[in-house]
Amino acid sequence: xxxxxxxxxxxxxxxxxxxxxxxxxxxxxxxxxxxxxxxxxxxxxxxxxxxxxxxxxxxxxxxxxxxxxxxxxxxxxxxxxxxxxxxxxxxxxxxxxxxxxxxxxxxxxxxxxxxxxxxxxxxxxxxxxxxxxxxx
Amino acid sequence: xxxxxxxxxxxxxxxxxxxxxxxxxxxxxxxxxxxxxxxxxxxxxxxxxxxxxxxxxxxxxxxxxxxxxxxxxxxxxxxxxxxxxxxxxxxxxxxxxxxxxxxxxxxxxxxxxxxxxxxxxxxxxxxxxxxxxxxx
Lengths: 136, 136
Ligand SMILES: C[S@@+](CC[C@H](N)C(=O)[O-])C[C@H]1O[C@@H](n2cnc3c(N)ncnc32)[C@H](O)[C@@H]1O
Fold this sequence. Notes:
- The structure is a homodimer.
- By secondary structure, chain A is of the alpha+beta class.
- Chain A has a single domain, classed as CBS-domain (Roll), CATH 3.10.580.
- The first copy, chain A, is about 40% helix and about 20% strand.
- Chain A contains 7 helices and 5 strands; from the N terminus they run ααβαββαααββα.
- In chain A, the strands form 2 sheets. A 3-stranded mixed sheet of chain A has the order 1-2-3. Chain A has a two-stranded antiparallel sheet with strand order 4-5.
- The interface of A and B includes residues 60, 122 and 129 of A.
- The structure holds S-adenosylmethionine.
């Protein structure tokens, strides 16, 4: 009913996003992406083009699909998801949470106005904040 | 300071968990697990023994690891994570959120007193509830 008041209360994506982002470029090999993912630090690799602009995202889901399938793909660009759902640093976290839920995904790259990745917001980060709310 | 009051306020796992659980048994083939995961309905397959008791969990992370690695494994029990973090239906969601965060995982099987899976709680489900709180 009062959007001004609501946005004043909601934390921003910037406050809970992870600023340490592991990424990959679109012309690297799938096995390089797999190695990065299997280090276990992240389950979401933003894919960048030569200019550092976000062009896709790759997860262990895509790796499994590629290897379990016909195995004919070799490069990240062939298996990445190109239509990336993302967030901005100033976005209220409830809007970001809705994007995760509606699209059944578990993380959003956070981009600046030039589509450069400045962070990543995962459902686990949201859960962290959520846990905190009920503890205090 | 007042745990009684806090638990009275916090929603329970039962209220937001997903009751439709896709699972697998430990002696099925890895490719069967991959097929179930790649249908995209879930990223977490609880693994059950012959008596329906929870004995492990498998995600696309484990599938990727198995296929990208030496490829010598064939059965789910060989690649599943055996030490499963889980929740109970009556657990407050903030406790469950902490388990996700501290263990860097994105879902918890929800079990009854006999270790039978009655639901699954994902970080996305938590985000859903979280989004709702700032909207109202
Ligand atoms: C450590 S996470 C790393 C990737 C990513 N952070 C994620 O949440 O999927 C991946 C591993 O966690 C395991 N895992 C997922 N949910 C689990 C749970 N509830 N209890 C124990 N292990 C779990 C999977 O079997 C997989 O080996």
